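Convert to structure. Protein one:
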Amino acid sequence: MTATTTVVGPVSGVVMVPVGLDFRGTKLYTYNNVISDTNFYELDPNTGAILNKIITTITTPVGEGDFAFRAWL
């Protein structure tokens, strides 16, 4: 088992209370846990810039925890 570390620059343009970070391939994602904006965001791992917003139907913050993508083997 191996692990990697990625330092992400500050995210700007949105109030962010991130719940976890996860890579899917080469793309980096976080989940925003602000009550008015419970969505996933694709981030540029080099700059922290928001590349894409993935709108969810989650209506309440999730509290504590993390998220992970399911791996298809």
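Protein two, convert as well:
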Amino acid sequence: MGISDREIARRLELRPATLNEWKKTRTKLYQHVVDGFTCKELMESMETNVDEIKEAIRHYKQDR
């Protein structure tokens, strides 16, 4: 799992070279950006898992 630097640059409408420069010269900014996208991916994954669990509970209750 994880988003590529190229994809982050695309979503932020930056040139990949700009993001790469941030990685070298503005490491805290770069890390915050990457952490933000990682957090978003994790939240989306968790929402999917919650929906699947709710569906399983609903089926379980129907079968009882």
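The two ends are 37 Å apart (CA to CA). The helical segments are 5-11, 16-25, 27-63.
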